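Quick question: what would this complex look like in 3D?
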Amino acid sequence: MGFRLRPYRLVFASLFVVVLFGCGGGGGGSSPAPASPPPVMNHAVTLAWTPNHETGVNSLGGGYHVAISGQPTIDVPYASGPTAPTTTDTTLQTGIYTVTVRAFAALDAQGGSAGSLSAPSQSLTVVVP
Amino acid sequence: MKTPSRSIAIGALVGAVLTLAPQVSAVPFALPTLADADAAKYVPGEVIVKFKPAASMQQRAATMAARGHSVLANLEQPGWAQVKVGAGQTVETALTAYRNDPNVEYVQPNYIYHATAAPNDPQYAQLWAFKNTGQTVTTGTYAPNAGTSGDDINIEPAWGHIADCSSVAVAVVDSGVNYNQQDLAANMWNGGVSFPNHGYDFVDNDNNPIDLHGHGTHVAGIIGAVGNNGTGTTGVCQKASIMAVRVLDAKGSGTTATIAQGVNFAVTHGAMVINMSLVGGGFDPIFSAAITTAQYSDVVVIVAAGNENSNNDITAAYPCNFTQPNLVCVAALDQNYALASFSNWGATSVDVGAPGTNTVSTWAGTNATISDNFNTGGVLNWTTSGGGWAYSPLTFSGSPVDVLVNPGTFPSGLYANSADNRVYKSFNLSGNNAATLRFFTQFSIQPGDSLNLNYRSSGGDPFAGGVLLNGGSGTTGGVIGPLSFDLSPCISATCSVGFQLLTDASVTGQGAGIHGFSIDTLALNPTTYRTTSGTSMASPEVAGLAAMLRAFNPQYTYADTVNAIKNGGRSIAALAGNTTTGKAIDVMSSLAYINPPTGLTATVQ
């Protein structure tokens, strides 16, 4: 038996990479390749995900935690309306980051309000040029 | 009896229960309704704030004073404060303000908790599946009938959050439902003018799915017997919407055609959960297609693993072994959370376990059995015509058995050629709604001859103007049975039932022996409950949970629901290696379960 399809699929999915070039401030036209390592630059990054279907996530006490490797966790709580926000904006320096999102709600598994947290989403690798 | 919940104990730690006592004492024994919960999920004008350890007392005071807020109480935990928000301010604006405050680590509403009172249904203490106190079920016959406290589905804390599943129609695809039962009538699906009897009957092809067996009514009560009504039992859902879909006849049997029609009806008419406490033989593509249709219509299907004490991975049982992702197959646990002795299992085919022994629930009516041993003082006491038939006390496996035989020397000797031997007896079946004839038999009847079974509701000779139930030639090769026949059309005060051996002039054979003759009757009434065991009882515990999850989370898809059932469960030793999850269902854990977010993307500017 040779290679199987399934491991390939898994590897591909977990290494979903977003690379977008041409960030702000670069100007137009061609330029010569730099002779030294590229400068560290700040880029605005917008992270977005699909709304969870739990009522508790989409009501007071619920929301999302966004974890970015090497960065403070971003809290995205429910505020108003039918769903908690499902986007957040941040600024990241040049580098490669792993991002995951967890959903949370107030209700806990004993029926109290100590809160519950989902497992992390599938991780996303973000390459900031 | 009120039962303090775990939610109260935890709530007290953070001071969230200031309004609890008056609410409970004002409504003793009452569970909060959904409307109550919606009306007051948290205290208006209050939030709970946790300051960062680095924030000084002066900074904390300044933070609150700047907003016109004041401390109502410090919550016996460093950094926590119960805060009264200023006049005219909402909890929402206060939450936003504190979230953006550098001195604040966390802020939340001051949630209101409700006592998770045990419902006041008089038989609640018998329902070990909901509250296992180690009780012995008074009417239980399965052994062991003494449980382990805590081995239950952990539903009482969940009822403090949701007990009303009536927004989610649950189809009971079964032997029908006695929709007049006192604990079910208020929780039946509203089928409008087209389905005034709350469903459909695919056995008789009419819109009256009344239960002529009892099984479906038992299943329905486990899902959604009215709770907290001071009557009988409660279901997983105290308020429910039960759609009755009759696919099994009075004997408890159905076919591919009726079951597939039943599933399709449920899907078409808005059921979001289907329970099928039934098991059949091989893979059936039409049945499978119906499950797939349910999947594409976002319907969850909960099914029983089967009661053969066998491994479904080796001997497939359907619908359990269907592999559609909207299907959950359920094994039965006993009162000590061991796998019930009868329950099937399967590491790849059975998903979860749920309580299934000594289960008290609603029943369709009163059952009775009329038995007949064919003799009085050793003499045949049925009417005969044409001779041939006789009573014979035989010995089977060392035990004496009363047998109706033809010829009289059966099992030795040969029956007569060119004969019309009839034997029959009249039974009073009046007052019943269903009757099932059962008996065991051994026969060898040559081609051209026939052994016939007839009935006649007006009494007398059932082979003169009666109705043929079954007949023909053949050889059983030993005792078979019990054979079951629906005798409901014969219900009268003078239902005669008879056997006929009709032979031609050619070869004769060994003849026939019949024993264990009985007529099981059912008289519908609205007040009967029954205690029984089976994976049929475990499946509806899970179907009720599925309905509760979808009622609590109206946006839930079938996949969300199945994930919450499987991931929210409680790992137990008896299911490890026997099921796909190794878990018994846990209602509160499933209710608190959160699916991991999906669809994460990034846009770099």
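Answer marked as accepted. The two ends of chain B are 62 Å apart (CA to CA).
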